[in-house]
Design a protein that fits this description.
2 copies of one chain form a homodimer. Chain A is mostly helical. Chain A has 10 helices and no strands. Chains A and B meet through helix 7, helix 8, helix 9 and helix 10 of A and helix 7, helix 8, helix 9 and helix 10 of B. The structure holds a DNA duplex. Chains A, B: InterPro entries: DNA-bd_HTH_TetR-type_CS (IPR023772), Homeodomain-like_sf (IPR009057), HTH_TetR (IPR001647), Tet_transcr_reg_TetR-rel_C_sf (IPR036271), TetR_C (IPR011075).
DNA sequence: TTACATACCGACCACGCGGTATGTAAATAC
DNA sequence: GTATTTACATACCGCGTGGTCGGTATGTAA
């Protein structure tokens, strides 16, 4: 056949890119169709409507992407240094555009949580997964850390700051502020160690 | 006359509320007109277009509101405790809806920075003002603080975390996560003191 | 009273959007 | 070889939006 799965995948990936760059609402189907070089009929053959396309992007693109990104950072021997390396690599390796574009999870959280319940629950689930991932791996090395630490609280704190910093760099359109905040975040994280 | 200034002010305030709750793009003029009980002609008499209305809301409502909110928190004798009290008061006094709704500055930053240059520059300016406000007041009590502190970096860090936490609470639709992050933020802030 | 500017009204418009209905060619089943 | 289903393509529709424009009521100054 004309490889339906490939068509579907192409639509998903380009949609993911568009949604990441423009947000969900501002992303127009016609724009996706042009980039994919498929017709509206093709899109509506694979997805019930725009919302379902959005959900599919979240589940099939963003979610695995996210876990693949964070897991190695935190499942390393020393998660403290793992996280610091991860964040540091982010502003040294990522282009300015990528950083200014922001994290898809945070972007969608800001845009869609209050508008659509389906998105909200998916986002919430992802955030909880991410939080557990970090909290568990910090607990794993609890003996090296200060003894007054609430692991879940610290995990949420780290993610909050990270998301806040990418939000901050949107208005300055460069990664200087992102770098500043991330550096301070590394200070904070390293300070979790007992000394 | 029919008090043009009052009409203008009413449009500004209701627009500010709508933009805060729905975002700028999702805010429809017709909705504003209904709530204001004025005609489209009245609105376009006072504002050139939707964008200019948005700018006016930012400059005449959000900016002063923001400064009045943060200044007392940080211009107090002990800005460390001032900030902690400020944040703590935020999750004890604010309703769940208010917190979930998020900070107008952060919301607009996320939504409009990448789309419209006029918004971006106004937001950037506000962020820099806020950063200076915090940094200067921390420097004011530098003798009580650790001596390895980059004041600007710390100020950006604090605001980032604050904004990140309000973003976080959008998906959970309650203020528990907000509270968690803010508590950890207070731990961090108090830890700036030398001991 | 005249002349004019300000403040406001409401009908109308073009546009782009998400979504649908109908048609058709390719692949599969029988 | 034929029937049926799958995988698209295309033309079309209704709706809500920001924005315009001719007209009108209200105030002010000559």
């Amino acid at each position: 056949m004309r490889d339906a799965e490939l068509t579907r995948q192409k639509i998903l990936e380009i949609s993911a890119d568009e949604i990441h760059k423009k947000g969900f609402v501002a992303t127009s189907l016609s724009c996706i169709l042009v980039r994919c070089e498929v017709s509206k009929g093709a899109l509506y053959h694979h997805f019930k409507n725009k919302m379902e396309l959005g959900y599919a992007v979240f589940e099939e693109i963003y979610t695995p992407m996210f876990l693949e990104l964070w897991q190695p950072a935190v499942e390393v021997n020393d998660p403290i240094e793992g996280l610091c390396d991860f964040f540091t690599a982010m502003y040294t390796n990522s282009s300015c555009d990528e950083i200014v574009c922001g994290c898809p999870l945070n972007n969608l959280c800001q845009e869609m949580s209050g508008v659509d319940e389906g998105f909200r629950l998916r986002i919430l689930n992802m955030q909880q997964q991410l939080n557990q991932l970090i909290a568990i791996n910090l607990q794993r090395v609890a003996n090296q850390l200060r003894d007054d630490i609430d692991f879940s609280q610290v995990a949420y704190f780290i993610v909050s700051t990270f998301h806040g910093s990418s939000s901050l760099s949107k208005s300055s359109k460069n990664k200087d502020l992102f770098e500043k905040v991330i550096k301070e975040l590394c200070n904070y994280i390293r300070n979790l160690k007992s000394h």
